[in-house]
Amino acid sequence: MERRTNAGGFVSTLDFWFEFGSTYSYPAAMRIGDAARAAGVTVRWQPFLLGPVFQSQGYAQSPILEVPAKAAYMWRDLARLCGKYGLGWQQPSHFPRTSVLGARIACSYADAPWLENFVHAVYRANFAEDRDVGDEAVIAACLRTAGQQAAAVIAHATSEAERPRLRAQGVRAAELGLFGAPSFVVNGELFWGQDRLEDALAWARR
Amino acid sequence: MERRTNAGGFVSTLDFWFEFGSTYSYPAAMRIGDAARAAGVTVRWQPFLLGPVFQSQGYAQSPILEVPAKAAYMWRDLARLCGKYGLGWQQPSHFPRTSVLGARIACSYADAPWLENFVHAVYRANFAEDRDVGDEAVIAACLRTAGQQAAAVIAHATSEAERPRLRAQGVRAAELGLFGAPSFVVNGELFWGQDRLEDALAWARR
């Protein structure tokens, strides 16, 4: 990712906390790269798992699924948002899907120049193509889309040496008080929800 | 409120469902009048009470208060949003406050030209001045701010003939499947949350 300086001459960074199974993380993940580059803000990709977060809150699943009318609204809202942002959309036949493998890869290769393309491919698979991103074959296809040798990347990301990274992300998320995704953290300031992306970028440029 | 026609030549209307105790209804209520007039959309003010909605979902209070980290975020988010929109902000010393009296007045005078000013005054009292909008004296002051004879308005809005209006709003909200506030309904399309105001107005102009 190209590094630019903002009007003040210093490099601003934004931590983007995302989960591959999270609906609203999808438009955020697709939009953040271009929006941040236009704003001169550097994105740090911070994959994490929401399951432990919800469990720590006493929920067995995403709180939005606890209220049927709210869950139904979420699907309609997602379809409209994807239309607004020009993103493909197909309501997943299974929800939530998680991708621990995808998250491990994103942890191990957070700074790789191809990571953004991989993230896009995984979200498209889940929310535009209704494919099971928990399936290693689907993740391998996403890696190839990002120009990578799937087998080598997967072997590295799932190695004993690399596996603690995802657990450490969970510890860090808890320390930050994250309660959902997507979340943006800028200089200690938390923004929650894909509709706060622009506010978070504006904060990074203050 | 002045009626205008949009590009298609017909008058678009937007139902604005709000609750005086709702934090995120505050910026929505303050912004919607000007935004709708600029868009050529007519607002129908739809006051309702959230308490029965949350109870029907199995919650004793707003779901956002069930997770302490999320409640803390809400206050910070509100302070930032009010800064962004140029609105006064003071975190209420008591939350949630409800104003059944304010809601009854808004029901009885939904079409009055002064209603918007009254609504603004009540929200300012609650969220910018930390005053108890459940107190009749505070509501009376809000009516005077809107240029009204407080005693006469209160006597009418709380009369036996008028009291069924607020209950009917609750029935209608349930029929519409509303699960929170603010909510915008445009031609049967539901938008939830103050950050969807612009999307709802755009939908009304389609």
Task: Compile the SSE list and pairings.
2 copies of one chain form a homodimer.
Chain A: E1 12-18, H1 25-39, E2 41-47, H2 51-56, H3 68-85, H4 100-108, H5 115-127, H6 136-145, H7 150-157, H8 164-176, E3 183-186, E4 189-192, H9 197-204
Parallel strand pairs in A: 1-2
Antiparallel strand pairs in A: 1-3, 3-4
Helix pairs in contact in A: 1-5, 1-9, 4-7, 5-6, 6-7
Outline the structure in words.
Chains A, B: It comes from Solimonas marina. Chains A, B: Its EC number is 5.99.1.4. Chains A, B: InterPro entries: DSBA-like_thioredoxin_dom, GST_Kappa/NadH, HCCAis_GSTk, NahD-like, Thioredoxin-like_sf. Chains A, B: GO terms for molecular function: 2-hydroxychromene-2-carboxylate isomerase activity; glutathione peroxidase activity; glutathione transferase activity. The structure is a homodimer. In chain A, helix 1 (about 25-40) packs antiparallel against helix 5. The first copy, chain A, is an alpha+beta fold. In chain A, a hairpin with a 2-residue loop joins strand 3 and strand 4 (about 190). Chain A has one domain (about 15-205): Glutaredoxin (3-Layer(aba) Sandwich), CATH 3.40.30. Chain A has a four-stranded mixed β-sheet with strand order 2-1-3-4, with helices on both faces. Chain A has helices at about 25-40, 50-55, 70-85, 100-110, 115-125, 135-145, 150-155, 165-175, 195-205, and strands at about 10-20, 40-45, 185, 190. At the A-B interface, helix 3 and strand 4 of A face helix 3 and strand 4 of B.
